[in-house]
Amino acid sequence: MSETKIIPTTGRNNCGGRCIIYAHVCDGVIEKLSTETKGTPEHPVPLCACAKGLNYHKTFLGEDRLRWPMKRVGERGEGKFARISWEEALDILTSEYIRIRNTYGPGSRYVNDGCGISAVMRGDRVMQRLLALDGGYLGCYNSYSSACIRNATDITYGTSETGTHPSDWLNSHLIILWGHNPAETKFDSSTMFYLKKAKAAGIPIIVIDPRKNDTAVALNAQWIPIRPATDSALADAMAYVIIKEGLQDQEFLDKCCLGFDAAHMPEGADPSLNCLSYLMGETDSIPKTPEWGEKITGIPADTIRELAIRYATTKPAAIIQGYGAQRNAYGEQSARGAILLACLTGNVGNSGGSAAGAGDCSTHELPGFPVLDNPYNRALPVFLWTDAVDHGKGMNEYDGIRTCDQGIFDDPKDITLNSNIKMIFNLASNTLVNQHGDINRTAKLLKDTSKCEFIVCSDLFMTASAKFADLLLPGVSMFEEENITKPWKFTEFLGFNNKVIEPLYECKTEYEWIRELAKRIDLEEEFTEGRDYSQWMRYIYDDLRTREPELPEYDEFREKGIYKFEEGHYPISFEKEVKDPEHHPFPTPSGKIELFSTKLWKTPMKDFMPPIPRYVAPLEGPEDPLTKRFPLQLSGWHSKCRTHTVHDNNLGLRRLDPQKLWIHPEDAAARNINDGDMVLVYNDRGQVKIPAKITDRVAKGVATLSQGTWYTPDENGVDTRGSINVLTSQRPTPFARGNGQHTNLVEVKKL
Questions:
Q1: Which domains does the chain have, with CATH numbers?
Q2: 532-568 pLDDT, tens per residue?
Q3: Calpha distance 24→31 (Å, rounded)
Q4: 29-35: strand order across its sheet
């Protein structure tokens, strides 16, 4: 009987957990997966896998794998393909690559944003390297996940590094999780560990969310249900109470902040446009009282008042923002509103407090594949790539086009695109169709082959996006290649993806076939620098060791599968800036926290994106007249059994957390809907058939669907699997031009 080998590896999909996984392998077959279950005194946080991590082999090694290269033989989007050889696939790829490059120029080529692989060697980065060597490509900036909160944080603090290590939350006296659900999203490996310790230590925890998520349940936290896209109204109403009660930290505001009141406005700005005047109603005759806030948010005025006073009088207190609240029509303002509260109470720069915002906290450098400078030097917001397919030629700085090196405070440059997107590389990504807003619009654009003329997809499965490929190439899973993984937020460790089994069928890494393409266009030497895949891995790691000498030798790292950095002192964000602002100014143009943003004040978008944090009533929000036709606000969330779309082909995980529309009992009763009834969820963008789950764990007037199910339309174009993006909008947010997919109006009827 053959011996079972235990091979260490790590999760590498777009999940912040980055769990340790041990593959139990016998005769080239993975028998099971196990994980780390306990921490140590030196490293107390166990990097343990959840249900998703322990099911990677069942997800990635099933019978539904793509097995060989294929070319499209039906209409684009039909999913009809014919098997071809790798030689023929490379012939087609090379021919179309050269034709499109020579006909339309480098700006016609686009590498789609993706999240199927989140590791050092990933196909999109490898492809970008080749394109950079061959004249360039249309780049992108921002992300679907965090565009609004990062831009808002940057324009306020001058950096997104506003976080402190979660261990410091144990020094808080109150923790508010605002749109943050780490129990289901696996934001990172530390967050829930320290939140549970905080709860055990008696630290009160409050969750603000349209849905009573699993984090609120696990922590037995107070849940404050809120209507989607109204978070900044709640922040305004809380700020009003704090000021009315005289609870603001005026010394901090005077010393560290720009724009709170008329006495601290930037030179040349209208002094009446300050935060205080707006909150008190001096600029618009509408004081932002809790009663005003109740009408918008759905939160009782007394609850708003109590929350504001509790937050202001409990020192220190931490607002920890997730990414949910900023994925709405004015997501920048949602993020800025929480930052205002942190500044108003002086919770910035001290242990146990929180600056709110993006909350990044980098204590170590991380490895990355060396993508070269892009000679084309043009980039668009990642959420607007469909616009560039439709009418890219002529898009300019007012559409968010900028140079690749342009910073957040730089003035807009006169830039115009000279081509539509004509060729898309969609590598390990279901974002092409499934994860983008308004699937039906996206699909219609992509079906028109006169617009985008050639789409290359590399993936493991026939996803909704893969069906739109002209050339479909079979990729490898995390078990079939080496890689290095790194955590999302807190740089406490590196993980090594050991190769566990040989590549299945005719599957290849993206590096292999991109290298072949480079060879055919006479760029192999420059592209590879003489290195194969494994040699690149060693080179990248050894280069990192020159800056992080604590790391072990490469072979030792690979053998152990993980390296945990030595525990050290974790700095408190902005501690130096707050204690000594004269010698340690904030990294903004003014050197202060810019509650009044000179960047926004000087832009044409200031009518839509005010220079101060304040509520702006969104389209498809609770005050939109469209509520007469579509009275329910639809919001998305992350299932504990999927990482975006990864694992939706795993029937076991789907049974663990079945896709259903969550709806409040009163909203269900008004529509004669019973629990488990099949319902139709619809608006002007599309229709979804899905069972209903009647629960008081969702706010009244709100319906929720977890995101990530694979778009599966019937013969009438009605989705049958619960793909929320059939119903979501493609409208970008005003400043970041980010993802506003949580701001949608729908109606629901029983079938």
A1: 70-144+368-475+507-531 (3.40.50.740), 148-362+589-607 (3.40.228.10), 625-750 (2.40.40.20)
A2: 999 999 999 999 999 999 999 999 999 999 999 987 7
A3: 6
A4: 5-10, 20-26, 29-35
